[in-house]
């Protein structure tokens, strides 16, 4: 399948962006992707599951047999579209709207998922925000606090709320980024949180090993999601992903299969690891 696209330099005014406004639309799942029951009978909670990578993960999980709860901020139509896609796979989808910077909301979200499905087997900490600034002096205390609250504090909140419901063989998957490994001069706070996620993943994996709960991460490179046109100006969007060895941005469907693997028994001997769907960038991590 050819994933080459022209991003057309499109932009959006508000983060985290709206997928239904994107042209070309991100590829959620390959037409020839065949589920094989890898997650049959499982239940997953995915933050940022309304669009982008999170939407693709939700649909892949459903095709593999899992029911899904997705957490989103305020992108109601995107969330509804994802729910329709999951239900088209014959699985249930619970929509949970709220601000993951709030510890109380994170606890409520897990509680609602448990109430709806009766169990939780897979937690995907995925939602993030980013705000480019050319100079460190331009990063306000408010921006710094919001970025860390969304991108790493929420991972702690959701994990703390989910752990009483996770059992041997269950799994946590965290979304980090290639920027954790090679940095990003204009995304100082964002890349710092992504580095923190790598350390968090490795540390939590060791902490939960005795319980048989696996913790891994995925570090995407430049992926065509709503966060891109809602973050960068037209010129950067035009060039997005062109500096990778593959000379193009990736599609969400090229990332979501990493989450399927890590969530399934295929990865039963893996914990504390990071997968790198990044267009051929070698990061040695």
Automatic annotation (TrEMBL):
List the keywords (alphabetical). Answer: Oxidoreductase
InterPro entries named among the record's database cross-references: NAD(P)-bd_dom_sf (IPR036291), Sc_DH/Rdtase_CS (IPR020904), SDR_fam (IPR002347)
Gene3D superfamilies from the UniProt entry: NAD(P)-binding Rossmann-like Domain
Does the keyword section mention Ribosomal protein? no
User: SUPFAM superfamilies, per this entry?
Assistant: NAD(P)-binding Rossmann-fold domains
What's the family? Belongs to the short-chain dehydrogenases/reductases (SDR) family.
The record's NCBIfam families line, in alphabetical order, gives: PRK06701.1 (NF005214)
Q: What protein am I looking at?
A: NAD(P)-dependent dehydrogenase (Short-subunit alcohol dehydrogenase family)
């Amino acid at each position: 399948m050819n994933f080459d696209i022209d991003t057309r330099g499109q932009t959006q005014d508000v983060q985290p962006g709206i997928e239904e406004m994107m042209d070309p639309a991100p590829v959620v799942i390959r037409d020839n992707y065949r589920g094989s029951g890898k997650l049959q009978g499982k239940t997953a909670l995915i933050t940022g599951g309304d669009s982008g990578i999170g939407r693709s993960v939700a649909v892949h999980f459903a095709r593999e047999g899992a029911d899904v709860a997705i957490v989103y901020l305020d992108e109601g139509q995107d969330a509804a579209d994802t729910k329709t896609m999951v239900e088209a796979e014959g699985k249930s989808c619970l929509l949970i709207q709220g601000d993951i910077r709030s510890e109380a909301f994170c606890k409520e979200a897990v509680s609602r998922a448990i109430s709806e499905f009766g169990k939780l087997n897979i937690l995907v900490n995925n939602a993030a925000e980013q705000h480019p600034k050319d100079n460190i002096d331009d990063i306000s205390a408010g921006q710094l606090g919001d970025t860390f609250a969304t991108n790493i504090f929420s991972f702690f909140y959701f994990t703390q709320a989910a752990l009483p419901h996770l059992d041997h063989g269950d799994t946590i998957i965290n979304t980090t980024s290639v920027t954790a490994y090679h940095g990003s001069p204009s995304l100082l706070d964002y890349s710092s949180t992504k580095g923190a996620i790598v350390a968090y993943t490795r540390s939590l994996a060791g902490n939960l090993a005795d319980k048989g709960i696996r913790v891994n991460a995925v570090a995407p490179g430049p992926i065509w999601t709503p966060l891109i046109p809602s973050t960068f100006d037209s010129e950067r969007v035009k060039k997005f992903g062109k500096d990778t060895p593959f000379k193009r941005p990736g599609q969400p469907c090229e990332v979501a299969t990493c989450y399927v693997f890590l969530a399934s028994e295929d990865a039963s001997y893996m914990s504390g690891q990071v997968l790198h769907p990044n267009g051929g960038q070698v990061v040695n991590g």
